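Hey, I'm writing a tutorial for new members on how sequence and structure tokens pair up, and I'd like a real worked example in the thread rather than a made-up one. If someone can provide the structure for the chain below, I'll link this post from the tutorial.
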Amino acid sequence: MRLSDCHNVGHFRELARRRLPGPVFHYIDGAADDEITRARNTTAFDDVDLVPNVLAGVAEVDMSVTVLGRKLAMPLFLSPTALQRLFHWQGERAVGRAASAFGTYFGVSSLSTVALEDIGRTVEGPKMLQLYVHKDEGLNQSLVERARNSGFDCLTLTVDTIVGGNRERCLRTGFTSPPRFTPASVWEYATKPGWALNYLFRERFSLPNLEAHLSEGSRKSMSVADYFTQMLDQTLDWKRAESIRKSWGDKPFCLKGVMSVEDARRAIGIGATAIMVSNHGGRQLDGSRAPFDQIAELADAVGDEIEIICDGGIRRGTHVLKALAAGARACSGGRLYLYALGAAGEEGVRSILAHLKAEIERDMKLMGVTRIDQLDRSRLRYR
């Protein structure tokens, strides 16, 4: 299987499975407990049908949308995800260049494998830092200050990782950051020599935004679930979130992981620009609602007061259109581009973005709409 054989997210997933060591692939692919929520994030879109209009004159389509203070060329952006240089040696540099080429937001994790300053210098498009609040307050302040000084456009506070989820695939494969080579796992890494050579002989793997404060994740191997539980601050509350928002200043501020109307109203109360409706890709609380299932409820309650972003489960252009019609301002996703990164680096990320952009444009024309704001609940039928 080659990159040229990949035409959708599922194809990129299969190519990544073939090219990545098992523990690394299953870290991307896996989720919590029985992975019910992970599956529901995508199947939720199947419960709603699109109602197209015809003869609408769709030769020219404008799929741009303004969200988080920036006008994006497409209503889909790349969610922040950690550890990207474990999936391909180019890591965040590849993803950032691809996002910029498509005129969309690039989300950068606190646990990124490229320094914020490097990203600020090399990524021309809009950038958000996703903040994990650590027990080390000096680290928290450093991350916010470095993002500000590096020209990041938005700060996104993740609020659904108060403890690590029960990621049983990672328990079975022994995945850690950095990888721990054990008798049980070394064969998986050895059978993917291309990945192994890049990992061993290119720049040293690290978490440069953290390593001046913490050894965990960069020099000391630890599972991501243990990292969340042991390193992140479980006293995080709404008062603290408001303090972080104020420390960021006047630029857009987003909360990632909001699912309920009650919490959306609290987000408005602390001055948030947007909420990313997200369950962390099903990696935290299994059995929780899918983001798409919550969009209409949230839009009806607070859609005029805060930007709503549907994060998770996106696999097709039609998924994006359904979320926008339900009331989302934009959509975002992580696995959709991580599979492509693992499959073929920057070329892979550019390829999946090109496929999804083409799907969105084609599906808009088939729906008989020429602008995003023409999509509303009247174009949906719930089964």
